[in-house]
Amino acid sequence: MRIRDEFLITKNFVYLNNAAYTPMPLRSIEALRNFYYEYSLYGPDTGDYYEEIKNRAHEVRYDLGKLLDCDVNEIIYTESATQAINFIAMMLPLKKGDEIILRDSLHEHPSNFLPWLHLERIKGVRLRKLRIDKWGYPSLGDLERTIKDNTKLIVITHALYNLGSIMPVKEIGKIAKEKGILFFVDGSQSLGCLPLSVREIKCDFFAFTAAKWLCGPLGLGGFYCSKKVAEDLTPLVFGEESAKKYTASNFQYKDIPFKLQEGFRNWGSVIALKESLKLIGSLGIERIRKRNMMLANKLIEGLKGLKRIELYGPEEEDSRISIVAFNLKGYEPEVLIKHLIHKGVVLARRWLTKESMVRASPHFYNSEQEIEKLLKLLKALC
After folding, report:
1. What is the pLDDT of residue 166?
2. CATH topology of domain 4-24+284-381
3. What span, in angstroms and rounded, lies between the C-alpha atoms of 350 and 161?
4. Where would a tag sit more exposed on the chain, N or C end, judged by fewer CB atoms within 10 A?
5. Segment 218-226 mean pLDDT
């Protein structure tokens, strides 16, 4: 079977909204179905079966560790990237007067701004906003000037959800380490479509979701947490599987990941993700990146040839992922998107400060013919 044929949505739509959610391939759907069939057949707590389930789910960390370039035990599962960000925010040993540096709320995805704003409300930390240019890039000089003695954390998104701009995470990580400041990266729009290494980025935390570029199931995400930093974190949730030993009056934490993960039971989705990761691994991130950018560049070049099209985001290929943001003058984005859905093409509406845009986000299973269909439909409206 061709890889493209594993994505059932290609039979019904030209789906170019992978930056929101990517459909699962058949192999992952079958793995999820098989898991719940076995789970119901053998019973959740029969003999050694429960331990086998946990071991199979733990093994998936090895595949994620290869993508992230980290130790297998530095990966903690959550229900989503949003939950991962909230867990990290609430576990950090921050107090009133500590400062967090991050991008402005009008440019940032709400899931990577609201948890920090919530922290400001309940703990009295202070948010310091970075100045950014029109495509979302912060000034590194401004970052260094913003850092104070009470700066405890720098927050940045790896690739922007609205424009696809790739942030200078390695440069920011270098500054954070030189200043002894914790560094958090939201990798929701980079893991699975962009080669990366948390060691090279020098981040302490990196949040991700399975449901976007990794082609995994809904309801699954996670985060990388360096072993060294984990020692100073107080778990947000805690239970029997988080403790090495305990008495009526005392206990000892387990090492990570289990110290920070009590309560997670979405083993079926983790096992399904393994099949998605096998697919990603068989293609290779470099090859996926190359194909995604070929499709994005084909779309951009086609849009440049159409009247009344306004493009957003950086032009340089090295500065963006395969997100293409644009507007067609004379059409509200919402109206244009509804029109295209009726024609069988799925895009998304996203915001840049107070202005909304149409967003396309092709992934490796998409075809050049699908890009041509979108361009043909837009040309008919120009």
Report:
1. 98
2. Aspartate Aminotransferase, domain 1 (3.90.1150)
3. 8
4. N
5. 98
Cis bond upstream, residue 257 (ω within 30): yes
The answer to whether 382 and 328 have CB atoms below 8 angstroms apart is yes
Angle, alpha carbons 102-103-109 (nearest 5°): 110
Beta bridge partners of 327: 310
Instruction: Determine if the pTM surpasses 0.90.
Output: yes
How far is the C-alpha of 313 from the C-alpha of 325, rounded, in Å? 7
Q: What is the mean pLDDT of residues 20-49?
A: 93
The domain spans of the chain are 4-24+284-381, 26-281
Contact by Cβ (8 Å): 130, 162: no
- pLDDT tens, 366-381? 999 999 999 999 999 9
Cα–Cα distance, 340 to 251 (Å, whole number): 58
Residue 1 scores a pLDDT above 70: no
pLDDT tens-digit series, residues 330-372: 999 999 999 999 999 999 999 998 899 999 999 999 999 999 9
* CA gap 270, 186 in Å, rounded: 20
**CATH architecture for the domain at 26-281:** 3-Layer(aba) Sandwich (3.40)
